[in-house]
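We treat protein structure as text, and this decision shapes the records that our systems exchange. Because each token names a local backbone shape, the row as a whole describes the fold. An entry from our holdings is shown next, in its original layout:
>
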Amino acid sequence: MGDTAILDPLSDEYRHDPAACLARARDVAPLHFLAGVGSWFVVSYREVSELFTHPSFTNDMRAWEHYRTPRPGSVAEWASNTSLFAKTGGEHTRTRRLASHAFTPAAVRRMDEQIAAVCAEHAGRIDATRGEVVDIANRFTRVIPNTVISRVMGVAPLGDDERRFRELASAPIRSANPLLADDERAAVDAAAEELVAYVRAIAEDRRRSPRDDLVTDLVAAYDADDRLSDDEVVLIIFALIAAGTDTTTFASTYGLRSLLRNRDQLALLVERPDLMPNAVLELMRYEVGAGALPRYALDDCEIAGATIRKGQAVFLSLLGAHRDPAVFTAPDRLDLERDTSDVIVFGRGPHYCLGANLAKAELAAIYRQALEIISPDSELIEDAVTYTPPSLMFTTIDALPVRI
């Protein structure tokens, strides 16, 4: 069993070189107890992979020992009690089966034109001359994911609705963080109230007037005369926003940072655009904001020699798993031609990310368009890269200045 003397994911050292900190911790034990937050941090591939599907663990935050019931009658209470995370067994299977109709590869290909248009639109606003420094995070990767989600949902482009949607869209992913302070939790809950009402109005409109968009696909999905209710459509969209906005921002921003730090691989991708599907997975394997996903123990159990109590939180380190030399040869090397079949960044089992196909398509489009802005000759201004305060879930790049 490890402890914070060996690993502290909230330290400055971890923020600047998480892979080295995780490697040191992995050499000691697969799990480390973080006394300051009373939770476990899992750093090896085998245990991260196992805990995605272990029957003694859930991603339903209600199982956490410190869970506080939301205000009665609030959207937060409703979402907590009825989300996909709260569904089990046949009900969960039914909901995913119906929702999956909107996220097949064929359905996502229909969205490709919209995704490419959003990426081109934002790239076109970067009118930089050679030698000029551009903040790629704030002018490109941060603004694209929310816009993509709003477009494929059918929110009117380039209007006040789209701007407000982008402002609200960070609420779902933040709501999944069990360690939010009370004031942050209140702000997130308020944003969720407005977002759910907003999405519900769109779903009700598509029942009356179908369009060629994602919400219509969900409203129209059926299997043997079984359909999703409006509440289920709202919850799926809420989950999609959580999985497809901030997380795509993390992935694309860190991915571009990784390419700029590994110019040989950037040059390879320019030369071999056919590598893009594999490059998307390898860039996420290599680094995706040192992200960790929370799970909660349903009963007392032992994992790799560590005794975990019922109700404790464990954070599954995606970077720890994907830099594990037991699974990946030379894991600290970015290799766009690597076999990525063992990458588990989208999870495993019944809770495998429903929007994985959409996320991969979006990341590919972002990188393709980014290669119109940056090149192997571009320079990352390392000293000017800034980050948000460290978090057990994801640490965001605030600014990614690049000399074009």
Observations:
- The first helix runs from residue 12 to 16.
